[in-house]
Amino acid sequence: MKDQGRRQDDAQVDGEDHLAGAKGAAAENNAGNDGRAAGRGLPAIEELLEQAERLQRKAAGLRRGSGEPLHIGLNTDPGFLQVGAINRRLRHLNAEFNVIFISSETSHAPRLLRQGQLDLAFVYGRPSDPDLCCEPLAEVHFCIVIPPPLLQTRQEPDWEEVASLPWIWAEHSSLPYTAVLHEFTRRRLKPNRAVRAVDEFIVRQLVIEGQGVAVMREDEALPLADDGTVSIWSKGWLRLPLSLIWLARNEKNQLLRLAREAICELWSARPSTAESRPGGFG
């Protein structure tokens, strides 16, 4: 964003120089020519003035944030994060908002913010780093899902049996999987990590094909449970906060403040299920 700021300053200086030069040319033309010569030169001078003024207005727009790229990190499914509604809202607020959505794991988001590759980021949890600001958006429910063919009986499995089943394990320090691993560790159990996957879309596909147990968001799991593709294990519910984070040094940036307020407003209008599901493992 520093480079963008330098480009804005350069654009404004160019616009002011161009406008000053055009006005100087107009003054010299009127002073050094008779009425007919000045009349013949007026259209060209007026066009030059209009071009300079357009450049100056563009520079002023850039200084206000118009057209400046806004990089937003997505830690999960874009549909769940409402990227379509976010983009429409930001475009409505400012037609020249240049929003760029980038996939970013929760564990990587702080580093990407510090490197200037992101301006805002969705994450699970509430980071407490002193150089970050955090705005909680919602409580997200997750559950452990089991393809029915993997269950030996119709009885509810216990933690030991679930640990022994083949697991589709998400890599890259996935916070929901980290929470499940902590619970297994607390019970002195190790999950059978049969397949490792790099993102939730691969996990979902492998679960649909019945190849292993996994952790899913409630909104993903319920349709699969309704059609019999998976069973939701009653003891495997957990809840994590979804948050929006940014660098503390950018707290007063007007562009980011406008984007943050729009995102928070959209999420505040989303129906909450915080009280409808268990908040921890059974």
Structure description:
The chain is of the alpha/beta class and about 280 residues long. The chain folds into 3 domains: about 60 residues; about 100 residues, Periplasmic binding protein-like II (D-Maltodextrin-Binding Protein, domain 2), CATH 3.40.190.10; about 100 residues, Periplasmic binding protein-like II (D-Maltodextrin-Binding Protein, domain 2, 3-Layer(aba) Sandwich). It is about 45% helix and about 25% strand. The strands form 2 sheets. Strands 2-1-3-8-4-7 form a 6-stranded mixed sheet. It has a two-stranded parallel sheet with strand order 5-6. The N terminus is likely disordered. Keywords: DNA-binding, Transcription, Transcription regulation. Belongs to the LysR transcriptional regulatory family. One of its GO terms (molecular function) is DNA-binding transcription factor activity. InterPro entries: LysR_subst-bd.
Secondary structure class reads: alpha/beta
Number of domains: 3
Helix percent band: 40-55%
Strand tally is: 8
Q: Give the C-level CATH assignment of the largest domain.
A: Alpha Beta
| Residue share in β-strands | 15-25%
Spatial sequence of strands, sheet with the most strands = 2-1-3-8-4-7
Stretches where pLDDT falls below 50 for ≥5 residues? 2-39, 57-62
- Shape estimate: elongated
Question: Main sheet, how many strands, which sense, barrel?
Answer: 6 strands, mixed
CATH architecture grouping of the largest domain: 3-Layer(aba) Sandwich
Q: In DSSP terms, counting alpha (H) and pi (I) runs of 4 or more, how many helices?
A: 9
Give the N-to-C terminal Cα separation.
47 Å
Biased composition (Basic and acidic residues): 1-20
Domain LysR substrate-binding: 65-261
Family: Belongs to the LysR transcriptional regulatory family.
InterPro entries: LysR_subst-bd
